Sequence to fold (501 residues):
Amino acid sequence: MDAINQTFLFYGYTAAWIIVLGFVLILVRRGQRIDRELSRLKSLVEDKEK
Amino acid sequence: MRDKAIYILGILGTLLMIWNLHTIFVVLPGEAAQGQIGKMLFIHVPAAITAYSYYAVAVVCSIAFLVTKNFKYDSVAVSSIEVAQVFTLVNLVTGSLWGHVIWGIWWTWDLRLTSQFMCFMLYLGYLLMRPAIAEATQRATMSAILAIFAAADIPLVVMAIRLHNVRTQHPAPVLETGGVDATWWPPLATGYFVLMLIAAALVLVRLRQETVRREIDSLRRELHAM
Amino acid sequence: MKQGLLAALFIARKDLRTEFRTKEALNASVSFALVVLMLFSFAFDLGREEFYDISGGLLWLVYVFAGALIVNRSFIREVPNDCLDVLIASPMPPWALFLGKTIASFVLLLIVELISLPVYGLFNNLQWVHAFWPLFGVMTLATWGITITGVAFSAVTVNVRLRELMLPVLHYPLLIPLLVGAMQVSTALIKGEASDIMQELRIVIAFDLIFTSLALYLIEFILVG
Fold:
């Protein structure tokens, strides 16, 4: 009983950190995407102003 | 400044967490009736309270947005809800794993599980609707309305299910009964503090993205005007 | 206040009249309810006694599905020709417009419910006539809750892409407490065990009161911004 207890406790904490880590990864990817979009738009605006 | 705050919060949270995990796994013995699996409590309960704390922040900011029409509040609201969703998911998954061992089933429709799941679904609708509204003011207003409706619904959900299902299999909530050993309180409180720090860091990251997005929107308008 | 109420009734009359001329939403909603009722008979193979235990639950599933079709149309029907902008610009207060639209949807959904209730009883050999009036009371209360939140969300989603998809995603989770209450009360009434339904009924009433006041207060932000 105690062995399976340990196993599922491990699963629980692992799952928790995978979920948070997954969210961080999503955040990072989205951040990169919108940063790229921002610099693209900025250069477009500069081009037009010239 | 904000980047620095994110790093400090993240590092502080991680260090505290390692210390807390040491207390939980090495120092403390297993729970008397449940053995080691009882220690799921240290992530399960703090995650739930962290989620609720940020849902509360979100509803306050939503009201503030409707009153002031300041987009900062809208950004805080959506960031908080997104992060709170993550911790609700942590709460649900850890609870399910615990239930599999102690109850022998992954899920049951008892009061707390159902209301937590409802909460998740309500705010999922919020997050799904946002990208579907193109105009910024409208998006912020409708989101704020939705957040207020969701917050008003949660007490009713709890009331309705309490009547529907009086016998709950869920252990008595720690906060209402205080029924844990005195040695369990410090790691529990630290767990909550740690998750709040990490959640704050995540909210700040998300907040920065909202700012960039607004900048992109205004640049797009500028381009359009040219 | 009185003027606003009059305007609300006016809007309700206008909406009902347009609906009764074409009967678009009404026909679609009734036939949809009938199809769902028929599907239930394939989905469950239960004895008569067992069916009574879930009778209220199934009844409200039909009603809430049919309701989605009706509230969906409420504000969207004003979008072509910019009718909505005109209505908002008119001197009537936004809450009156909203209240009128809710009353119209409420009447329509109640009609759908009154049509499908006998069919439901007939298909499943259910004795419901003895409990008609209390059942009608519950239907009135819960239908009001469904329509006031549904029409509010219909207004929220007017400018949303894929609004027909979005509305149920937003609306159904919100309705859970109301439906839990209404289902319990209806089952108890149909089974004739209506001794302690007051507590469940209280939730339905609380839902109505909270969301009616909240929606009437917030509608100005939704429509005007």
About this structure: Chain C has a mean pLDDT of 88. Chain C has one domain: 17-77+104-223.
